[in-house]
Amino acid sequence: MTKTKEEKEKETKMKEEKKRVKRVMDEVSRSLQTEIKTTEGKTKDKSINYFSGAALVDTLMSSKWAEENDELYVETRLDAAEFCTGLLAKEYFIALHEKTKKGSDSSSEKKKKKKLLKFDVINDPEEFHDDPNKYYMWKYSLMGKWAWVIGGVVLLGVIAMALVPVWPHEAQAVFRYLTTGSGLFLGFLVGLLIVRGIVFILVWGGSKGVYHFWILPNINDDRLGIIETFKPLYSLSNYYEKKEKSTDCDSALIPLL
Q1: Dihedrals φ, ψ of 61, to 5°?
Q2: Could you tell me which residues come within 8 angstroms of residue 77 by beta carbon, excluding any fewer than 6 positions away?
C-alpha cells in the first residue's frame, strides 16, 4: 500500500520534530551538566557525582531556558519537572536510591557531610521527583578540557610517527635510540615480574606456604612515587605470624563495635 502525499508530509514533519526534540534535549542536558553542583558519593561498583531532583529543577529554572524562546520555554517548576522526566526517560541521567543501615539515623546531616553516601541504581524509575531527597547521576560525563588536549597530543603523535621516514637523519637517530631504550626497559620490567614470580613460588613451595618472599614488593603499587616503588629491594614475611596478628586485632576490636 503506497502512502499518500499528506501521509508522507506528516511522517517527514514527525521525523523533523523528533530530531528537534533530541537536539534540544542534548543542548539542555549539556548546559545543566555544566552548571549544576554535584556531590561525591558511591555505588556498588564505582565513585559517582550525584545531585538532587530539586537541585536540577533549580538549575533549569535559573538558566536561559526559563526565559521565553523558540526552542524551549520552562515557565514553572512543574514545566521543569516534566521536561526532566523526559530526560530521565531518555536516560540522560539515572535515578539512585540511598542506602541506609538498619538502626542508623538517616536524617543526621553531620554524618552525611563526613561520610560519602552510598547508593543503589534504580533501573526502571517511574518518574522524576522535584525533591531534595531524591538523587540522580548523569549517565555520561562531559569531556573536560584536558581530555581534548590529551587527545590532540595523541593525534599529533600518531601523525609524527607516520612521518618518521621524512624526518632529518639526526632526528631519526634520536628516535631510534629512544625506541630501543624504551623497548629494553619494558623488556627488563617484564623479565623482572617473571623472575619475582618464579622466586616467590620456589620460596613458598619450599617452605610449604609459611614464607612469602617478594623482590621489589611495592613495584605494582600505583599509589607510590617512582622512587618509593623500588623500596625495599625485597621482603620476607611469615604468613602465619601476619594472620595471627590480624586475628588478634580483630578480637580487640570486637568489644568496641
Answers
A1: -70, -25
A2: 57, 61, 130
Distance of CA 82 to the CA centre of its chain: 28
Contact present, 96 and 135 (Cβ < 8 Å)? yes
Helix (H, G, I), strand (E, B) or coil at 94: strand
**CB of 41 within 8 A of CB of 117?**
yes
Q: Which of 24-28, 104-108, 122-126, 164-168 has the lowest mean pLDDT?
A: 104-108
CA distance 94 to 71: 25
Question: CA nearest 57: which of 18, 33, 84?
Answer: 84
pTM given for the model = 0.54
Give CA–CA dist 188/191, Å, rounded: 5
Judge whether residue 181 has pLDDT over 90: yes
